[in-house]
């Protein structure tokens, strides 16, 4: 406001001044006329005596001005006027920058939201995940990067730790909800006491689960997620205290968690208490994820030390049901390796994000180089003007400032447009980004992103403005010389500047292209891997649970699964159907343990851990998993609980030398278990994705004996059903599947309906995302680089028309002249390629973890890409060079 | 600074004090000020227009003067400059310091003359 009134006030001052000066001159004129001078002579004399009116006025006005700011504004006005006059140039530059800055802001926003921003819990720096390593447990690494916690471990940690404010264990699960609408399978987070206290986010409405809810003998209450509350209860505030039927049991709703609340990175519908029973827990059962909140001032190292102590307490306090030495687990060498919770949430995605950020950053650099080149051409065209101004006394800084101001204005305009591009880009990114991108819902343009944009705009403005500014604001002597080069053939100064830019562009484009090609080769290599199933597009998958509360008896549950299979197989267009406890790449929590083959003794009794799967007859045939030797299970074996099993090819080779040799061999899990005979060997399956090793797998029938209660048969109750049909994926087919299931039991919800193709694509999502980003960046870089070469050669040709004319007049051949220009382009490309190859060799190592089946220094890529780039450069320079051949020597010489 | 005309012939502050003193007698417009100083000093002092107007603006900004719309002797619109209270106070303190400076200079010159 004050500024405003001051400016208004200033207007009046300026008027006052003008009136005063006018009157001053008039009065002097009058006086001179009174002395007898004629009017026009008197006026002239009065003005001459007074001096330079404009100058004086400016001097007087300056009193009222902030001089620096106002000259800056004046310069800015000039800049705007100049840009407005060459609007084509301005639009090109602003658009280039808008895309560059926008893309960078979008990627930065993702990076910021996922990697940099703290987790959305109070005092998140205190949160850790209880990661355990077990280097002495062979085989574990094939399907797990850590050893999870057992219930007894959690109870020990909770009771005896000295470093945590609170500690909790949790695991993802599913539950059937009936009685509201259609039966529905929801995602549950099963939590022990301490989980909510650790995360410390208050309930949105109602209250947290309490210790009473964790009583193993009661039926604890449950909590809803905000999303499920909205979806199923329409956000009804009276929901607290009502009951809901979870797995056929009525449970009271304790409260609703707020919007966006997740258990670590898991988006649940329902929080269900784990309700461990301390009197029955055993050492084993490594199924839970542990989280804890450190006491203030406790370091990770101190917490790890306490964890190591607690593991000894654990082995001292608990036993396993079949007896044995509780300290047997010393052989696994379990060590706590606690990590900040954020690391657990973010996982390995950071490599992808940093690579994409770096890639987009390089594209931005290339765009800046292009803009710098354009500005150089412009500044070159103003060379005379700048020289004149310099001769009239404009300082170096004054000229540099104006050039920089122009580039910064362009940068800021580009940045402003870039925010819009970023907003659109962000929506695109979150859509095409990998589905397993953590913290996806937290991604947004925040203050930090905007600050990033601003800094990027200013820095890029300075960056591409600095080159012309340094070139055209040199000392005065050189400037006068610059003005005198009017008749010279080409400005060497400018040409050299452009050349350096082209070399940089080619080098950067080469790096990006090599990255993109390596990703393409990775993708192809992954596609070529036999995943252990066939034609995923026609394989429909769904998950179905039969809770014990619905069907108590194991055999009945299996019969129910069997009749569901029969109904599914009867759907028109279905060729076969089967089920398994887990399908490849679905991310289902793996089941694992050790097996002891007959006649083999392991040192210290430590057998390697194997992945367990439970399959129905016909599952392998349906999935297209090849039977390498032997035969499939039969239903008679399932219902008869016959001691038979199947193994993966890799496991068969490891234990018995060959798949054929494995048939008829026997193994068991524990001593009192009957020996199981290997009846079949199937090909290796890439359970964790095509770029991961195939774990050694043991396949059991879906019903097994219980080591503790031999007369009780245990059925696997959560199964993935696989259905082979060319109608897979259509809505009509999904409806018929649902009807088939309900034809057996109307209370059975199906969940996770997808085709194997979707699961397969999801497992490659990171690779394809990185591939798409790098390919886009590489293509842009190549286009910009080629454009740069084209521009430089075109400019050189137009500047050297006279020279060409002279050469022609002296008898140079046209083709030789064209070659002269192409050659200069090839030299630049060659240097750029050499630099780029060096940089790529260094940088591609950073991408190692994203590559598969290919070396980061793949010789074919490192040869083919430069060849293509050089060929493209040759073409790009040939087009303008050809024009030199079309120069008419007479015209060219006359042109001056 | 050497190029700045306002310091040619006069030492810093001299022009201001003369303007203030002149305006204390009566409010005047720009040209009248020039004539007044020239006349009173018997043509010994010549005020340059190049210095006068920037100086007037500076003093306006500092609040020593105020400008009012008025009519010149010839009946044309002009701006009349008038001393403010702050201007009077400033003038008085300046006069004191000038007198002390002159006294000092005179003594030094007197010693040199012996």
Task: Kindly summarize this structure in a few lines.
By secondary structure, chain A is α+β, with helices and mostly antiparallel strands.
List the helices and strands and how they pair.
The complex is a heterodimer of chains A (896) and B (114).
Chain A (H helix, E strand, L loop, with lengths): L1 H33 L4 H12 L2 H10 L4 H19 L1 H30 L10 E3 L2 E2 L17 H10 L3 E15 L5 E8 L3 H5 L5 E2 L15 E3 L1 H8 L9 E4 L2 E8 L13 E4 L15 E6 L5 H18 L17 E2 L2 E2 H6 L2 H33 L1 H9 L4 H37 L14 H26 L3 H8 L8 H37 L10 E7 L8 H16 L4 E7 L10 E4 L1 E2 L11 E6 L4 H5 L3 E4 L4 H5 L4 E5 H8 L2 H4 L3 E3 L7 E7 L14 E4 L2 E3 L7 E3 L2 E8 L5 H14 L5 E6 H8 L1 H35 L1 H9 L4 H30 L15 H27 L3 H6 L2
Parallel strand pairs in A: 4-9, 6-8, 17-22, 19-21
Antiparallel strand pairs in A: 1-10, 1-12, 2-11, 3-4, 3-7, 3-10, 5-8, 6-9, 7-8, 13-25, 13-26, 14-25, 15-17, 16-20, 18-21, 19-22, 20-21, 23-24
Helix pairs in contact in A: 1-2, 1-3, 4-13, 5-11, 5-13, 5-14, 6-9, 11-14, 11-16, 11-24, 12-15, 13-14, 16-24, 16-26, 16-27, 17-22, 24-26, 24-27, 26-27
Chain B lengths: L13 H12 L4 H11 L8 H14 L2 E7 L5 E7 L1 H29 L1
Antiparallel strand pairs in B: 1-2
Helix pairs in contact in B: 1-4
